[in-house]
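new request in #modeling-help
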Amino acid sequence: MIVVMAKDSAQVDLDEVRRRIENRPGLQPQVFHGVERIVVGVLGSIPPDLKDEMELLPGVLEVVPISKPYKLASREFHPDNSVVMVGDVAIGGSEPVVMAGPCSVEDEEQMVTTARAVKAAGARILRGGAFKPRTSPYSFRGMGIEGLKLLQLAKQETGLPIITEVMAPGDVDTVAQYADILQIGTRNMQNYMLLDEVGRTNKPVMVKRGFAAPYEEWLLAAEYVMSWGNRQVMLCERGIRSFEHYTRFTLDVAAIPVIQRLSHLPILADPSHSTGKWHLVTPVALAAIAAGAHGLLVEVHPNPDLAKCDGPQSLTFQNFSSMMDQVRAVVAAVQREPVSVPSPAHRRGR
Amino acid sequence: MIVVMAKDSAQVDLDEVRRRIENRPGLQPQVFHGVERIVVGVLGSIPPDLKDEMELLPGVLEVVPISKPYKLASREFHPDNSVVMVGDVAIGGSEPVVMAGPCSVEDEEQMVTTARAVKAAGARILRGGAFKPRTSPYSFRGMGIEGLKLLQLAKQETGLPIITEVMAPGDVDTVAQYADILQIGTRNMQNYMLLDEVGRTNKPVMVKRGFAAPYEEWLLAAEYVMSWGNRQVMLCERGIRSFEHYTRFTLDVAAIPVIQRLSHLPILADPSHSTGKWHLVTPVALAAIAAGAHGLLVEVHPNPDLAKCDGPQSLTFQNFSSMMDQVRAVVAAVQREPVSVPSPAHRRGR
Amino acid sequence: MIVVMAKDSAQVDLDEVRRRIENRPGLQPQVFHGVERIVVGVLGSIPPDLKDEMELLPGVLEVVPISKPYKLASREFHPDNSVVMVGDVAIGGSEPVVMAGPCSVEDEEQMVTTARAVKAAGARILRGGAFKPRTSPYSFRGMGIEGLKLLQLAKQETGLPIITEVMAPGDVDTVAQYADILQIGTRNMQNYMLLDEVGRTNKPVMVKRGFAAPYEEWLLAAEYVMSWGNRQVMLCERGIRSFEHYTRFTLDVAAIPVIQRLSHLPILADPSHSTGKWHLVTPVALAAIAAGAHGLLVEVHPNPDLAKCDGPQSLTFQNFSSMMDQVRAVVAAVQREPVSVPSPAHRRGR
Amino acid sequence: MIVVMAKDSAQVDLDEVRRRIENRPGLQPQVFHGVERIVVGVLGSIPPDLKDEMELLPGVLEVVPISKPYKLASREFHPDNSVVMVGDVAIGGSEPVVMAGPCSVEDEEQMVTTARAVKAAGARILRGGAFKPRTSPYSFRGMGIEGLKLLQLAKQETGLPIITEVMAPGDVDTVAQYADILQIGTRNMQNYMLLDEVGRTNKPVMVKRGFAAPYEEWLLAAEYVMSWGNRQVMLCERGIRSFEHYTRFTLDVAAIPVIQRLSHLPILADPSHSTGKWHLVTPVALAAIAAGAHGLLVEVHPNPDLAKCDGPQSLTFQNFSSMMDQVRAVVAAVQREPVSVPSPAHRRGR
């Protein structure tokens, strides 16, 4: 950590900064008098509250953290890519995994026909919402446990593992009985008690990016889950809120290679929620794959204009099948990085 | 609702739009052939899923909602200002209410001295966090129930009612035993199960704005609470996430008069979390009051540089007392709007 | 245009709205009394100032434009893709065009070796800045006319046409003598006098997206150029400003298919400025191509760590050559849309 | 400047960083081996291109600037507030200055009656646009030189000095003949050639904040003007682009005290353009004054519903007069900071 002080700071203020640092076990200050600033380097393992303490001491202009606040999720901690196994499906390996299905579970026929269609087109995981976060209290909020049972039925019919969202700490145990992957939605990315609770399970967890979350806060959300011992965490870029409202959100495609540099966790992309329009889903899906995503989360519905939610962004079976053909072609075209990404310190070719 | 179609839409597409509208009980389409577009007006009480259904019909370019999706929270539904009573403190009336106290409850002495100091300076409600949402799992997360008990103690000593955050549906009953106002934090503004749960209590609720929430989603969060019958809801602008990172968030001061136009609920402001720097708290607090805020939420700590959280943005007792003097002066200077704000349709002076 | 009025508007207010519309040549109001609102449809060709006039009449809650404010740039006006020819290079056709070169022109050797290297790797257009917009007045601002001459020299050596930025109306004639494509930078996207001036030339123009410009304002900037009769306009997505600062900007990859739906103009992408980091350039470039971009604008430098600007985001010759191999593979994999994109009203497959 | 390197960086990489720093005249590296990072402090006066150079050396993870990139505009360079004199009006002193008038100059009667009305209500400067930046090429773009002449006429009638926008470097001399303050609009804040040109005049300049400009880029725009020797610069917060679109822009009220801390230049606010709605102008104006703004820029029109631009946000004479009464009351209520703001290093009260 670097503490930046005004050049004309009083000696008493500099002494106080030094004293506070020395008071902490294992920390040592190193002071440099620059042309425009006094800079105090803090050597040692920095406790998380030190930044706050330093920031409000007299004479201090700025405190610059040097280490990352997340550890378990960082590539420095774990240089090789993590691969999360869901049954025999490997997420985070060299082959992208497509998870597809309806926004919400509606009835048995819908789930089973969709499961069969997406499996036939190449999806490896079935998605479907039983507990639905909805902006308005007057919208359909999902079938709850009945929905989970229909998901299980579709799994039995097709063998596809299930990913589904859990929204409350008290529901985690129940959802975990049915789901193969627990999904944390964008609006719950900083619902810390929910993160704690899924961290206590032994189920794979997908942490969707909060729509206003910088990379660091997103990785800290993963860190919450991992800090309980659950290391089967994957991330999903699903679009951030920007000033542009033609699309529902703005998919940050650079997040894919950035996360691969900062973290060892698998990173997927959701072209459906980010765009909000079915005709944008395929180009954005291809973009994510070309950028190196470990997978996709895509909404598919047998009859989008009758869907109980997210109809405008849902693909028909035919749309999805066509998208999958193109996804396969792009996967074949792009040189996938080897499992261990080069360290940030690697040299570039000349 | 207005459905906009391409001028060259096929007759079959126009007929389908018409048919879908007529299928809904009580709805009727009205079709106009404009120069560049066909416009279909939908008359009647619009169900929330109709927009999605219309959007993906062939020929449809855009669907424009005309009514607001929130009802109970809207000023149209309830033209006069709502006043929320907390003991004998009226929130939403002509006199702004200041709620002050530490970010987190730390010990008895801290709470009691702070409660006395903020009361002496003119605060009417005591704030303090027992359950703390923290970005990092390695930060101090609050004292939990012990913290609630210390808040109660400080209330007994000073008579100040308590506002404190509740973070999980399962904690609502417990927190409600100690708190006079249940606070929904910015990261939980779309934690719908938590909103449901506080809606089922009979306690006043403060809904802080999600840091990436447009006004409409914020008012819909209030609507969640109100839809369970709990009408004692107040709102708090606490800063939105923008590209500017010198401050932690960007306080949207215009939100105060906007919310007063859209809604009858009291609207407060939090200058501490929005700025993240103690020396910005007073000017931003005065701005909020001058813009018409019904109150403030301010962090105060006996010794900010030892605070377990949010030290950099906490005021000392002396800072707070000085801020309160200026707040009173601005309150006296500004002509407060009468309890019933003029309708959006009022004429302006010439 | 739709004028939305309060249900309880006074008759005099409704009459005034009606009168104002009828006062405009060729316009007619159509009034509907809905359950919650009065809606007035305005039929005819809407003048641009009518929205402002309507918005402040008593009783009016909202005015919703139905037509797009841009015409020449819109796909409705011109259903087939536009192809801009630069010498024998077709931009906007089925084959993406890569434009590459250094951020700024520095000397003859740098320009000529770079031009040869990028040509060998498959670039079709040479980029290089002679007039450089720099955030700080103390940074290198380009070689000016001397830089233009070096660009011309590199063109003579390699045959590659030149794209270069013009920053002031008074420089347009001079720059147009040397450049094959005039580039409008992101900070000048709403420098209307500059847009006018390039509109008066007969040179192809690339309009980079302003980093806080919604699609509509971007297309209106293109409309400025086109309104002077210059139809050789292409667009370039180069990243928008978001809350995420790990990358310099956030490349909005969905902009590519969105612009192809709204407009007939070619749309390229700039992975260098959007990311600001060389190691993110290739994945983001591939994403843009997979999403359907008509080309790329990439910074390449013989020795990035000695570059006078933008070194951190510049590719070496070897990096660029490797990127081009992958670009070609993705181009081959993706089914390019035919020249005429299906209209927004087309049906989706079932 | 701080160069952060990976702990496991090769010795050759560390040596290269050191060598590059030592190559620069007057610079010296200081190396520290921390627990998780190697940190290299660079002592001396840092050239602006060093950051770029360091960032792409092998082993370098991050480069953290410690000094501010602007000098002339910074409070460190000039601890006391700057006061810009326009005739006998002092901008930046203890009394806020209100500048008011129509969005665009339309005719003599409009200008003269408005000038008289705003003067009577207490405005000290007359605003009016002769050259208008408009999003659409089809909107009214101002009267040009004829407009400047009408502004001059209104000045002769009332004695009010004039502020008006200049949009192109080639127009600066002409506009400077008529204007007392040259206004740089938000869309031109990074039109560097325009900044250069107004810097070469001896006229006061108002630099409006670019709607996506962080404080640092805004102050660097002021630095451009000042670097030519023109020190009569003032700043104006006019709203930033956020995800919220109910208002045209989001006024960042905290910018006022922040700028006063970072810079010695006067800081004003524009409640008209930021909100886009006349009924929000007064509360936002009062907020800016309460936060310490040195003045306001407000749009006033004799008949807003006939205004050629910005009618919806323009105040009538009566609205403006009422706003001014409240502004005076708030000014009287707020303790204005003394001319010299306490340094960032000052102690806070206990």
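bot summary: Chain B has a mean pLDDT of 92.
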